[in-house]
Design brief:
single chain; 914 residues; 7-stranded parallel β-sheet
Length: 914
């Protein structure tokens, strides 16, 4: 192959568009080999800084996910000079052609002239402008996404379209002026004056606000401006005209003069409610009075106390709540009639002495609606417990009134005690242990089983998030026995689990519930479509077992059945809501949904939304709403208030117990975790310092997104170097004794494992690198004649199951496992030592792996050894992980925290201390 051949790359794209308008893109090269998603992203977005290295588009192991606007960006400018794109099939090629066609029109200056509205739908005269129906659909999706991204509503487009045709999309054009054109709203000067002033002001580079002198108030813009700004007169006139065109609160025709007009209270209200959101969405500056920006409706206070109307049945979830309302304005008590009158008054801005008060009519109207709903008996104890009543009257923290809330909510003592009892999952109705259960449940497991039955009977999904090893499986099996002993249950329950634990579920069901009829839906000969429906009808299985991969492939088959219950084991598998797997599983139908997971959140709050969208669909609303309400204020601003709100909302649906909970009385053996510190060899140190210097030089020349990409790649390379230089240099393995000389860490791991085996004990060794696992295996075999299996993601299920059984039976002393493939779902209590060859940046993942040995059934002291190379990123990040562990316990953790380090923190991370 010539050099020129390597510079002309052909990407054959497969394009699939979901119902939500999201594109799933995969690619192969001219030889039919699959292209990695991150590599495909770098070619698609080579001219787009934000998307470089594929950090902006979402990806998984095979697919790049793009919304319409992102896909149009690919063809907006120059494509990669050494790459070309074509469709794999005729349909793919047609989609590519339509995208190119749409991108051409999308970026034309007169694009909005071609858009027409037909019954609220955006349409284009396809024949007139020469585009296909598919291109027209793509443009419609792009407009919808752009409107949504601006925080506007699609139904506002008819009012905006005339302005868009005249001025284009606000913000698309780049101003060269050193000044900004803004609107300024000023309150009335005196008590008797009720007129507000809306005017155009010029904001200088230093933030000073300029308006024409009184004598030039009626002069044309060019004459009124100071000499230094006269050259910008035409651009200022155009910008003011553009901003005025979006005003709906008042009619304004400033012409060639600076805008200066009076406004009434109702007009100001309309300006704030309707015009201001448009200006803010489009980036137009608006200057408001400081007191108005701070929203001083805090002068209005509402307090209410909830109780139940019938004290004969205070413990009933269906009891109707009654409310006692109390109001005060500026510290003065007012009655309900006075409050209702305030809602109907036109004045919203009241001046008392030297202070202005704003009584927000929207908020007052909302409170009045809440009162009417409450007085009509619309809310029950159940609604209160599961946060199904409006957020305004949800009690976040009983004891914290420091925020001086506008609406203070409290509960009658007896009601409070009952709600806390149900919320804490204690004292729930006894469901009765099923006769067919062949196990003795621990007390906390009985509580978990009763809770699952309680949640089913009250039509609420459930997330059982006990620590690994506390017996989530047997609690779920007890629940299934209860459900399938009921005469009204006439459909099977579905359990979806990772392939690695499918055999474990088969054996546990057979062991604990031999009376259940279990069918495994897995393998090439499995029933599909009508054959599956016939199997369910004739064989009438109680439980159907399947895997995530199979459920995704057979989503059409499985979606035809309404299951008695659907359970996801290791539910974090659906955490990425954009993947086909997550979407397919969340669309399945069941009378009750249960999620089993030891880590309800591994990295981001978006994972929590995906799990809750499965167990109790719609509870958190759309993902966009959840992002605005919780993800942004928590992950970006670290808002304690929003954390408390989120905990209050998830608490009723989430049952989590840990091994350290003294109330469980587990009587587990103790566990000791300790770091095993190892120095680098001279060879490793030289390579480490050289690579660090090269990386620092590159980091200084890169943008933010490029910098993040390099940091992530650099960290992985350094971790391999800390393990062994041959992994870093990608060298073939030499004899074992030579390999041990080049890495103290490898030498310590191999010798420690051999010592454990010679003492008649067993150990697990976890690594995230296949090469490291193979190297440890080679050294133990050559030097100690110990044959060590290595469980990785490529190992077939049957072989995995056999190895787990053999290890538990003591047939071999050392078991090497890939962190991803062996870190969850396996019961390996025969081991009393756990060796972590390399550190994972997420402590929750590492703890999951440790819990393969430290779980119920363990009768020995468990010793956990974490190998850390001294002076390197491993030691520095180990210290950071102590801080990150506290965040993980609080259900808050950022997935890419390492790429967000400051320059000082990064410089310290990249320093090498010999």
């Amino acid at each position: 192959m010539t050099k020129m051949d390597t510079l002309n790359l052909l990407f054959q794209l497969s394009i699939w568009r979901s119902e939500e308008g999201l594109y799933e893109v995969t690619a192969t090269d001219s030889s039919g080999r699959a292209i990695a998603p991150d590599r495909l992203s770098s070619f698609l977005f080579f001219n787009n800084e934000q998307a470089l290295y594929g950090l902006l588009p979402a990806t998984d192991d095979e697919v790049v996910y793009l919304n319409t606007n992102e896909f149009l960006q690919v063809f907006a400018g120059k494509t990669h000079p050494f790459a070309s794109f074509e469709g794999q099939t005729t349909n793919d090629e047609a989609h590519l052609s339509a995208l190119r066609e749409a991108a051409r029109l999308w970026h034309e200056p007169d694009f909005w002239q071609h858009a027409e509205l037909d019954a609220g739908t955006i349409r284009f005269d396809e024949e007139k402008i020469g585009i296909s129906a598919l291109s027209s659909m793509i443009l419609h999706d792009a407009i919808r996404e752009k409107i949504n991204a601006s925080a506007m509503q699609l139904d506002q487009l008819p009012a905006l379209l005339p302005h868009l045709r005249k001025f284009g999309w606000p913000g698309d054009s780049v101003s060269t002026m050193p000044i900004r054109v803004a609107f300024r709203l000023t309150e009335p000067d005196t008590d008797g004056d009720t007129e507000w002033l809306l005017e155009t002001v010029i904001v200088s580079e230093r933030g000073a606000q300029w308006t024409p002198a009184v004598r030039k108030a009626n002069a044309e813009i060019g004459d009124a401006l100071p000499a230094k700004w006269k050259e910008f007169a035409d651009e200022i006139r155009e910008k003011q005209s553009e901003m005025v065109s979006f005003l709906r609160s008042v009619e304004a025709e400033p012409g060639n003069r600076f805008l200066s007009m009076s406004m009434t209270d109702p007009e100001v209200r309309m300006f704030i409610q309707e015009d201001l959101p448009v200006f803010q969405s489009f980036g137009y500056p608006v200057i408001l009075p400081a007191w108005l920006k701070s929203v001083t409706e805090s002068r209005m206070r509402v307090r209410t106390s909830a109780s139940v109307q019938s004290y004969r049945s205070a413990a009933g979830l269906d009891e109707v709540l009654s409310f006692d309302w109390n109001f005060s304005l500026a510290g003065k008590e007012i009655d309900q009639d006075s409050f209702r009158k305030l809602v109907d008054e036109n004045r919203e801005f009241i001046r008392s002495g030297d202070e202005w008060f704003h009584i927000d009519p929207v908020w007052l109207k909302r409170i009045r609606e809440l009162m009417e709903q409450a007085d009509a008996g619309e809310w029950t104890v159940k609604d209160l417990l599961f946060q199904e009543i409006p957020d305004e009257i949800i009690q976040v923290d009983d004891d914290d009134e420091s925020d001086d809330p506008l609406l203070a909510f409290s509960m009658q003592q007896s009601l409070r005690e009952y709600v806390e009892m149900v919320s804490n999952k204690q004292g729930l109705p006894d469901a009765g242990i099923p006769d067919g259960l062949k196990a003795e449940l621990r007390p906390y497991q009985v509580d978990g089983y009763n809770w699952l039955v309680f949640m089913r009977e009250n039509h609420f999904g459930a997330c059982l998030a006990d620590d690994m090893g506390l017996g989530k499986t047997v609690q779920l099996i007890s629940y299934l026995l209860n459900v399938h002993a009921r005469p009204e249950t006439d459909s099977p329950s579905l359990i979806i689990c990772p392939t690695s634990v499918l055999g474990n579920w088969q054996k546990e069901l057979e062991r604990f519930a031999p009376g259940l009829n279990v069918h495994t839906h897995y393998g090439p000969t499995r029933a599909r479509d009508e054959e599956f429906d016939e199997l369910v009808k004739i064989r009438k299985p109680d439980v159907i077992l399947t895997t995530y991969g199979t459920a995704t492939q057979d989503d059409e088959t499985l979606s035809g059945t309404v299951f008695a219950s659907i359970t996801l084991d290791e539910a974090q598998n659906i955490k990425n809501m954009q993947t086909k797997q997550s979407r397919a599983i969340r669309k399945l139908h069941g009378d009750h949904q249960i999620a089993l997971t030891g880590t309800p959140i591994e990295n981001r709050l978006s994972e929590l939304w995906a799990i809750f969208d499965f167990i109790h669909k719609g509870y958190f609303g759309s993902f966009r709403t959840f992002t605005e309400q919780f993800i942004v204020p928590i992950e970006r601003d670290d808002s304690e208030l929003e954390k408390r709100k989120l905990r209050a909302k998830i608490r009723p649906f989430l049952l989590r117990r840990t091994k350290n909970d003294p109330d469980l009385q587990l009587n587990l053996p103790k566990k000791l975790e300790q770091n095993e510190y190892c120095p680098l060899t001279t060879e490793q140190a030289a390579l480490y310092e050289s690579f660090i210097e090269d990386t620092k030089f590159k980091l200084e020349t890169l943008t933010g997104f490029e910098r993040k990409g390099l940091i992530l790649k650099m960290l992985s390379r350094l971790k391999q170097l800390c393990n062994h230089p041959s992994l870093f240099l990608k060298e073939p393995h030499a004899p074992a004794d030579q390999m041990l000389e080049r890495s103290v860490k490898l030498n310590r791991i191999v010798s420690m494992a051999a010592d454990i085996a010679s003492n008649g004990e067993q150990c697990l060794i976890f690594t995230q690198y296949i090469g490291m696992g193979q190297l440890i295996r080679q050294c133990l075999s050559e030097l100690y004649d110990i044959d060590v299996p290595f469980l990785s993601g490529s190992m077939p299920k049957g072989q995995r199951d056999h190895l787990v059984e053999a290890f538990q039976a003591g047939e071999f002393p050392i078991f090497i496992l890939s962190l991803k493939a062996g870190g969850t779902g396996l019961n390996l209590t025969a081991a009393n030592h756990v060796l972590h060859a390399d550190r994972w940046w997420n402590p929750a993942v590492e703890n999951q792996a440790t819990d393969r040995a430290y779980r119920i059934g363990q009768t020995k002291f468990v010793h956990v050894h974490k190998f850390v190379t001294v002076g390197t990123i491993e030691e520095k990040i180990d210290k950071m992980l102590v801080e990150k562990a506290a965040l993980s316990a609080d259900l808050i953790q950022s997935s890419q925290w390492l790429t967000e380090l400051s320059d000082t923190e990064l410089d310290d991370l990249l320093s090498f201390e010999r």
